[in-house]
Specification:
mainly alpha; 4 domains; 496 residues; two-stranded antiparallel ribbon; 4% strand; 22 helices
Length: 496
């Protein structure tokens, strides 16, 4: 019996290797290059490794990158680009900012201040603790670190203070507080781009696959409404369905006063960290105006903390979670990126497009939601779950005609050009897709008749996007007929 765990590890390791090596034994499908097929098999093996976890995630990702270079699917220079992306360094810097909150004790102080102000009942106590977590969430990209390192020790001390033993008397208040705070921890993780590792990963993959640019403020605006609704409803729902025996908690304020007295007045490190934190929030919120990169903003805050000795360089080098995340997140992102560049994702999107004929957009979205929801049972890590499933599911949604969250535009020659995914720009029957900011009545819908049925359908999906920008679809052969057209010359060479 003592060898069963070891045998289980060997079984999981062999299965991971078998999946990663399957591309060498299965013929390359039509429409794919050999390198794209090899890279996909390695990527699929990496996902299986994330699920089974025969070894650490960082080790799996590093082996996968080495396999990509050895197989020729990617050059070694391309492999090294995994560690140069903005997203991975944003995550690393956020982990280091989280370390500053733990070292200085500012996170605990905020929690106790909120508890002292609003903790006179069990329901208000749940709200106050979770609200304090919401305040510090933008600087801590790990729900486990926030909950396990800062919030749940406070919940445990409260349960002990009220005599709510986990085995003998959980219904007094401990079970209610633990359940409420745990559920809201997940809600808060979704509200801020930097509140969980999976969020910037999703943004990066959406940018590389669909060409969509989502800023820190864009994410917050989109997630704030459902997040606030869940924040208000969940504790009250649990309070009614699973009510605690202790309704009034004046002792919580006394406990908060005692803990704050032990901590004493705010120290210099806490004050500096608080100022830096407010500065970072302001810069992230105004990044669309200042044009500052989110990663650069995080590095500015990190440099200030290092110069002011709030954290030391030894704290930077000793933050294992940050460097582990750098390896496995960077590895998965670069493999997803080159799956797109080598043509696998456009090829896969084309297959999905053909399969989605007659399937409505809402049905496809519902299917994606169900797949994503129940696939979580196979992953031990929420971030690994997002990293592994997100690319495939957004490709499914795009093939079904689901509108992106936000369209990224770039100005060139006085015209707004829409950045489109390769899946819509290349392949048989490809056409020129351009977007102009013009009233809807000026759209020339007749251009659609020049396209084959699949491309015509995609163009119509794109015309239903939210907002005034609409797609004008011009076939490659239209340029030959421009001379016969009448009307004034438009920017970009079009005549109407």
């Amino acid at each position: 019996m003592s060898t069963s765990p070891k045998q289980g590890l060997w079984w999981r390791a062999l299965l991971t290797i078998a999946v990663a090596a399957s591309g060498w034994f299965i013929p390359v499908p039509d429409g794919l290059t050999l390198n794209a097929w090899y890279l996909f098999s390695i990527f699929l093996g990496t996902v299986v490794g994330f699920i089974l976890q025969p070894i650490e995630l960082g080790t799996i990702a590093l082996i996968a990158l080495v396999a990509c270079a050895l197989s020729g699917a990617m050059t070694f220079k391309q492999v090294l680009s995994a560690f140069s992306g903005n997203t991975v360094w944003l995550i690393v810097s956020a982990f280091l900012l989280a370390r500053a909150f733990i070292i200085t004790g500012l996170g605990r102080r905020i929690a106790y201040i909120a508890m002292r102000a609003f903790g006179d009942s069990s329901l208000k106590l749940a709200y106050s603790i979770s609200f304090s977590e919401m305040i510090i969430a933008p600087a801590i990209p790990s729900n486990s670190a926030r909950a396990g390192g800062l919030i749940f020790p406070i919940v445990q001390s409260l349960a002990d203070a009220f005599g709510s033993d986990p085995e003998k008397s959980p219904r007094k208040i401990g079970a209610f507080l633990t359940t409420s705070v745990f559920q809201l921890d997940l809600v808060i993780s979704a509200m801020f781009l930097t509140a969980m590792v999976g969020n910037p990963i999703a943004v990066e993959l959406a940018n590389r696959i669909l060409g969509i640019e989502i800023t820190w403020m864009d994410w917050f605006i989109a997630a704030s409404v459902p997040g606030i609704v869940c924040f208000l409803v969940i504790p009250y729902f649990i309070y009614k369905v699973y009510p605690p025996e202790i309704k009034h908690t004046p002792e919580a304020k006394q406990l908060a006063d005692a803990e704050l007295a032990k901590m004493g007045p705010m120290k210099r490190g806490e004050k500096v960290l608080a100022c830096v934190f407010v500065l970072l929030l302001g810069l992230w919120a105004t990044a669309s105006i200042t044009k500052l990169n989110a990663t650069l903003i995080a590095f500015v805050g990190l440099c200030i903390l290092l110069v002011c000795r709030v954290i030391k360089w030894s704290d930077v080098t000793g933050e294992k979670n940050a460097w582990n995340t750098l390896v496995w997140v960077g590895g998965v992102i670069v493999m997803s990126d080159y799956l797109n560049r080598l043509g696998f994702i456009p090829w896969f999107a084309k297959i999905l497009e053909n399969q989605m004929v007659g399937v409505g957009m809402m049905a496809a979205v519902a299917l994606s939601f169900i797949i994503y929801l129940y696939s979580h049972y196979f992953f031990a890590s929420m971030s690994a779950h997002v990293t592994s499933m997100y690319a495939a599911l957004i490709t499914l949604g795009a093939a079904a005609g689901a509108p992106p969250l936000r369209l990224g535009f770039r100005r060139r020659h006085g015209i707004e050009h829409l950045r489109l995914p390769d899946a819509l720009r290349h392949g048989p029957g490809s056409c020129l897709l351009r977007c102009r900011l013009r009233p809807a009545e000026n759209l020339v819908a007749a251009r659609l008749r020049h396209l084959p049925d699949p491309r015509r359908r995609l163009a119509r999906h794109r015309r239903r996007l939210v907002g005034i920008p609409r797609l004008l679809v011009i076939p490659p052969s239209y340029g030959k007929r421009q001379k016969k057209s009448r009307g004034r010359q438009q920017p970009g060479g079009f005549r109407f």
